[in-house]
Write a structure and sequence with these properties.
Helix content: 40-55%
Strand order of the largest sheet: 1-2-3-5-4
Structural class: alpha/beta
Shape: elongated
Low-confidence stretches: none
Order of helices and strands: HEEEHEEHEHEHEHEEHH
Radius of gyration: 37 Å
Strand content: 15-25%
Oligomer: single chain
Mean pLDDT: 83
Number of strands: 10
Length: 329
């Protein structure tokens, strides 16, 4: 014990650091690679040729490790954050400030399931679009001369436009309707057609079909165009079983083109009826005012009883006019 050297605290730290460096160096002797599966996380961009802390996450347990991967390897594999991948690399250790951390040097990267990767990317892209959309309800126009844009299939065999117009009825003159046929399988053309809307109401219709035929109504371009449209938006697509995300971005969703026509006809009838009621009430108010004015025009020497009677009549007329105005407003 007497011959034991006495060290300073700094020397103890240096001894511990040297021992850690020795332990980390032994990981270099592991010449065999390991294969790991997981989901690539996101990392802040940098100007280096390599990512030093690229997360690889277990989607089920949430456990993650940090990868060291060159940008060339990731670019060659065509993988990005969110993709499920299989990584081959070597296990290493890093010693930094008295701490030992796991290192995993990536040799190769490949998609775990290329088909699933394509679907996952499309879903993530769609979710990103939906998060960025700002939807606002557009009320049905309170005008009897409102104009309508009808977007329907350009196929000559499709009769959906006839079904819609028949259900719409004769209350809408042809000059108030602009029919625009488009290819219902092309999201770019549908989005462009929606973007041309300058009318008060826009109606997008198509008939039934295979489930795959309706994915166009979940395309980011179509959803964005519907979100930005300031007209009252009506969707009449397919049948009850064909539900799409576009239904969430319109003001009324009908199950069939004919049902969309019935909706427009019903709403137009309500507008007409309300305006007719308001016109009748306005005429009634005018008549009451004229009657009250004629009764109030009495000679200066009229008996007190006559003036009192006319005053009471004016009070009743004023009360009735107030009630009618309150109903209108």
């Amino acid at each position: 014990m007497a011959a034991m050297p006495v060290l300073s605290p700094l020397q103890v730290q240096d001894l511990f650091t040297a021992r850690l460096d020795e332990i980390c160096a032994h990981f270099e002797e592991w010449g065999f690679p390991l294969a790991v599966e997981g989901q690539l996380g996101d990392v802040a961009p940098n100007a280096y040729k390599k990512y030093y802390q690229l997360p690889l996450v277990d989607p089920q347990l949430g456990t993650s490790i940090s990868l060291e991967a060159t940008k060339l390897v990731l670019a060659a594999a065509d993988v990005r954050a969110g993709d499920h991948v299989r990584v081959t690399g070597c296990l290493r250790a890093r010693h930094l400030r008295g701490q030992v951390a796991l290192r995993f040097e990536v040799l190769t990267v490949e998609p775990h399931d290329p088909g699933r990767q394509k679907v996952d990317r499309a879903e993530r892209s769609l979710l990103d679009v939906l998060r960025g959309l700002s939807w606002q309800f557009q009320p049905y126009p309170d005008r009897r001369d409102a104009r309508l844009l009808l977007i329907h299939s350009a196929s000559s065999s499709a009769l959906v436009s006839e079904d819609f117009l028949q259900a719409l009825g004769g209350g809408w003159r042809s000059e108030r309707i602009r029919a625009l046929p488009v290819a219902m399988t092309d999201p770019h053309r549908i989005a462009d057609a929606i973007g041309t809307c300058r009318e008060d109401i826009i109606v997008l219709i198509r008939g039934g079909g295979d489930v795959s035929d309706f994915t166009v109504f979940e395309h980011p371009l179509v959803l964005e165009a519907l979100s930005n449209c300031v007209a009252h938006r009506v969707l009449g697509v397919g049948h009850t079983a064909n539900r799409t995300l576009a239904e969430r971005l319109v003001d009324h969703s009908a199950t069939t083109p004919a049902d969309a026509g019935h909706y427009i006809r019903r709403m137009s009838g309500r507008v007409w009826q309300r305006q007719e009621e308001e016109r009748a009430q306005q005429e009634e108010i005018v008549a009451l005012r004229e009657s009250a004015t004629s009764m109030a025009a009495l000679p200066a020497g009229a008996p007190f009883g006559a003036r009192l009677r006319n005053g009471l009549i004016l009070l009743v007329v004023g009360t009735l006019a107030g009630l009618i105005l309150s109903r209108i407003l």
